[in-house]
């Protein structure tokens, strides 16, 4: 039989967790309590032990996905006659559901409504110890919606349910809320009676019902907005819901449900747009880019250099015994050049600490390398890159790239970078304005190495030429230091022998 | 390394700084981390009756409670428990002391002493009830003479002292034993309990497991002197033992129990150990703790230590190891089955066990609630719905 495992609340009152990695694949046989996944909550990175002994049938969520508590993440094929499994079997699904509905009361009640919101907002993971509760997350938590009664005209009690974002946002727009809203509960204000009488007019509050009825409607997949209440003041009763269901048995998913589906993109046939939920790495990247672009004033400089000597050096090094089996690329030399140039221009290896009103100058280099991975852009860094020899640096670079491409970069590699390189040359691009990795003072983009006519010893010759693009945080680095740094990197690549004058 | 043998933690400070009153003392240790039995002029006497067979059974108990702990942690990760406070690393402190008790002694523990509960013979399923959220407490304290775990830090020390005053009034020779952590010694309750215990010279043992961390707070921040030395301020004699040495813990507990039974009043025991896991399953110690520290303490693992002792004595046979493993697996299986098949409470169960005698106000509320539930028509559906919410 197939058993689903739903994401439990791994802390106290958490509503979501991110799948970092799966330790198993579809078709693998797993034993009870075998570690199957690594999951990051707002509080901790934890390993998930398998609740069943069986075979993995399906992994419902990919690494990098933020999953709501209570959502199925993996299915197992479990032998019907497995020893302890049957006793262990029924409950997990049930309690998983419990967890989903207890812990994420938000996930429960407001799942439909809030789904669209779950991807919005900047993900903030703060140190969060037991006893202090989770950081309030945008997902799931039922936000108390103000009952808004436009001053003029009757309102539709039922229009709001289908537009979660709008109603949520209603809170942030107190202008919509008239004094009448504060009088709700007396049940005697003219506005309320008015409302009850005129339920077919546009705009207003969510349908009136009671929590058990809303639960019933949710379980049956009924959109309350489509039901006309027969109770006092338009209250929707259980009978109304049941009645509606009888009449609608043929109709499967309601529009409300469809809107709430937060799954991946829906690219139906003939549709002119694809809507993809903003989540995972995309969400993080976006937040990081916005934070960087709007806090650090960027300045960018370009330098085009003849790197033929470097290419010749590369060719010689590749033949050397010391570099046998080591992947040497223009990036390797460029990285080394950056590390050497940084010693002469330390201000590019620093951080703006606005909180303490201090500039932190690092005496070590954690060199970030922008990597395109299946999950999207990540910038893992090489810790202590300045202390590595060229061989070690080359090895570290290829290890970093392999790990990133396999999607196995540990979180520790993604933090603590001090300066970054992005190699846009591999896409055949010459130059661009890179955006700083947040918290860093500089980022260097390497362009493609091209054979171009270039001035050489007084003549025009076909030379291998590359453009370097350097963006720096102008709060930390002046044009002078930025220019000197870029000139140093260019000089090393144009004539590697010049390193002798720099170290 | 940020902890040291003295249990004070922190970078090595000069002795004068660490023990401003010059009262720093050595740990009582009967078995070294490498499993060597070393003699102690005073404490050997208290474990002279421990046979090879009993050593093997101490090893079994420690292994079993570690297995219980691992299984419960897994159950939490699988969504079967809401929370679990692991005891990993504190097995010797719990088994060494728990096994020294008489059945008519009474235990008042914190939430981490599941190993002590095991010694008292608790039903495995009962340990999990609270953590699964199906009951407000796990068992009837009088069936195993152990109160259900106290969540309020240190409050159980007052309960124990009160109970010990009762023992004194009865003229009995049983003892109340209370377990708490290093952090609890900073609580008012623990200090008040020690004042009362000293004033009335009641038969209570204050068993403090110094596991070095009060959630994220290292013990050195809470006390500039050794915890055992705090007891002197209350006029309570204290002992300081290696909490990862099951024999030393047992000896110390027996010394304290003997004093209490003979009318000598309270004793404070500091068992220096280490919480190798998180504070609870909702905690991530890597955020505040140096990984090297864990490594240092893993080298002093209490189970490895008794295993090494058994090996030296030629007792650690494959047969014994297999037998212990089978026992641990069986216990884990039984606990898992008990957990996953535990029935969820009915809505009206909330009214049970509130008062021991009929109460008209409660009856009225129960009646109202029952009628509310009845409005759903289908009682089964209503129950399921209530349960889900």
Automatic annotation (TrEMBL), chain A:
Q: Which UniProt keywords apply?
A: Acyltransferase, Lipoyl, Pyruvate, Transferase
- The coiled-coil regions, if any, are none
Tell me the segments the record calls region Disordered.
83-129, 162-186, 248-273
What Pfam families does the annotation carry? 2-oxoacid_dh, Biotin_lipoyl, E3_binding
Residues covered by the Peripheral subunit-binding (PSBD) domain: 208-245
What InterPro entries does the annotation carry? 2-oxoA_DH_lipoyl-BS, 2-oxoacid_DH_actylTfrase, 2-oxoacid_DH_E2_comp, Biotin_lipoyl, CAT-like_dom_sf, E3-bd_dom_sf, PSBD, Single_hybrid_motif
PROSITE patterns linked to this entry: BIOTINYL_LIPOYL (PS50968), LIPOYL (PS00189), PSBD (PS51826)
Which GO molecular-function terms appear in the entry?
A: acetyltransferase activity; lipoic acid binding
Identify the EC number(s): 2.3.1.-
Query: Which cofactors go with this protein?
Result: (R)-lipoate
Q: In what residue span(s) does the Lipoyl-binding domain sit?
A: 2-77
One GO cellular component term: cytoplasm
* Compositionally biased tracts (Low complexity): 83-102, 110-121, 172-182, 249-261
Q: Which family does it belong to?
A: Belongs to the 2-oxoacid dehydrogenase family.
Protein name, entry field: Dihydrolipoamide acetyltransferase component of pyruvate dehydrogenase complex
Give the originating organism.
Pseudarthrobacter oxydans
């Amino acid at each position: 039989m197939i058993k689903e495992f739903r994401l439990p609340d791994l802390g106290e009152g958490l509503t979501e967790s991110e799948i970092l990695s799966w330790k198993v694949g579809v078709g693998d046989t797993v034993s009870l309590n075998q570690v199957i996944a690594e999951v990051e909550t707002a509080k901790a990175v934890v390993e998930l032990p398998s609740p069943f002994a069986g075979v993995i049938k399906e992994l419902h969520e990919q690494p990098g996905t933020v999953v709501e508590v209570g959502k199925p993440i993996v299915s197992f094929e479990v032998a019907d006659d497995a020893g302890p499994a049957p006793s262990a079997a029924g409950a997990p699904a049930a309690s998983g559901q419990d967890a989903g509905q207890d812990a994420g009361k938000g996930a429960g009640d407001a799942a439909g409504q809030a789904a669209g919101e779950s991807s919005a907002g900047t993900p903030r993971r703060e140190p969060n110890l037991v006893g202090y509760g989770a950081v309030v997350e945008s997902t799931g938590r039922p936000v108390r919606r103000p009952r808004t009664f436009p001053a003029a005209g009757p309102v539709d009690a039922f229009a709001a349910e289908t537009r979660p974002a709008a109603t949520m946002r209603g809170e942030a727009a107190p202008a919509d809320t008239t004094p009448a809203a504060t009088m709700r509960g007396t049940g005697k204000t003219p506005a309320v009676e008015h409302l009850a009488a005129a339920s077919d007019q546009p705009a207003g509050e969510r349908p009136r019902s009671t929590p058990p009825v809303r639960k019933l409607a949710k379980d049956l997949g009924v959109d309350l907005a489509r039901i006309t209440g027969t109770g006092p003041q338009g209250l929707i009763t259980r009978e109304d819901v049941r009645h509606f269901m009888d009449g609608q048995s043929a109709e499967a998913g309601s529009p409300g449900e469809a809107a709430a589906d937060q799954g991946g993109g829906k690219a139906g046939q003939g549709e002119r747009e694809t809507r993809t939920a903003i989540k995972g790495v995309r969400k993080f990247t976006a937040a990081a880019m916005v934070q960087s672009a709007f806090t650090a004033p960027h300045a960018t400089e370009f330098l085009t250099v003849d790197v033929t000597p470097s290419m010749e050096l590369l060719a010689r090094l590749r033949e050397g015994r010391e570099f046998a089996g080591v992947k040497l690329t223009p990036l390797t030399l460029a990285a080394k050049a950056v590390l050497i140039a940084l010693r002469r221009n330390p201000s590019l290896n620093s951080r703006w600490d606005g909180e303490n009103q201090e500039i932190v100058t690092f005496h070590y280099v954690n060199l970030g390398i922008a990597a395109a991975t299946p999950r999207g852009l990540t910038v893992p860094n090489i810790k202590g890159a300045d202390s590595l020899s060229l061989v070690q640096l080359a090895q570290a670079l290829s290890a970093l790239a392999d790990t990133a491409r396999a999607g196995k970069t540990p979180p520790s590699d993604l933090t603590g970078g001090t300066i970054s390189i992005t190699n846009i040359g591999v896409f055949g691009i010459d130059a661009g304005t890179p955006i700083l990795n947040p918290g860093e003072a500089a980022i260097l983009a390497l362009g493609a190495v091209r054979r171009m006519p270039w001035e050489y010893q007084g003549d025009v010759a076909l030379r291998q030429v590359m453009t370097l693009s350097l963006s720096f945080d102008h709060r930390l680095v002046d044009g002078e230091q930025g220019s000197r740094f870029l000139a140093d990197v260019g000089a090393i690549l144009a004539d590697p022998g010049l390193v002798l004058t720099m170290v | 390394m940020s902890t040291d043998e003295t249990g004070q933690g922190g970078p090595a400070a000069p002795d004068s700084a660490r023990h401003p009153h010059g009262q720093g003392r050595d740990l009582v240790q009967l078995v070294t981390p490498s499993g060597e039995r070393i003699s102690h002029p005073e404490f050997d006497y208290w474990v002279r009756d421990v046979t090879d067979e009993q050593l093997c059974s101490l090893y079994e108990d420690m292994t079993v409670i570690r297995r219980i702990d691992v299984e419960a942690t897994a159950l939490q990760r699988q969504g079967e428990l809401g929370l679990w406070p692991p005891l990993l690393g504190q097995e010797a402190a719990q088994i060494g002391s728990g096994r020294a008790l008489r059945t008519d002694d009474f235990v008042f523990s914190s939430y981490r002493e599941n190993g002590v509960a095991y010694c008292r013979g608790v039903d495995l399923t009962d340990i999990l009830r609270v953590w699964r959220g199906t009951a407000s407490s796990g068992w009837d304290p009088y069936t195993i003479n152990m109160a259900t775990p106290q969540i309020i830090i240190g409050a159980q020390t007052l309960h124990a002292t009160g109970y010990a005053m009762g023992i004194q009034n009865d003229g009995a020779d049983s003892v109340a034993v209370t377990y708490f952590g290093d952090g609890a010694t900073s609580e008012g309750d623990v200090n008040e309990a020690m004042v009362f215990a000293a004033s009335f010279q009641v038969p209570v043992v204050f068993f403090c497991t110094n596991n070095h961390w009060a959630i994220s707070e290292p013990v050195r921040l809470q006390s500039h002197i050794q915890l055992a030395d705090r007891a002197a301020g209350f006029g309570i004699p204290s002992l300081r033992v290696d909490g990862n040495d099951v024999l030393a813990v047992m000896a110390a507990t027996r010394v304290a129990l003997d004093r209490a039974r003979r009318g000598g009043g309270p004793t404070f025991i500091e068992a220096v150990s280490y919480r190798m896991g998180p504070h609870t399953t909702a905690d991530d110690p890597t955020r505040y703790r140096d990984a090297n520290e864990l490594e240092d303490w893993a080298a002093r693992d209490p189970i490895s230590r008794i295993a090494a002792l058994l090996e030296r004595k030629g007792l650690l046979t494959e047969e014994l190891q297999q037998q212990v493993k089978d026992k641990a697996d069986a216990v884990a299986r039984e606990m898992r089955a008990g957990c996953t098949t535990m029935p969820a409470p009915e809505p009206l169960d909330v009214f049970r066990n509130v008062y021991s005698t009929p109460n008209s106000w409660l009856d009225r509320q129960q009646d109202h609630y029952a009628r509310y539930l009845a409005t759903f028509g289908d009682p089964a559906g209503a129950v399921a719905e209530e349960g889900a919410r």
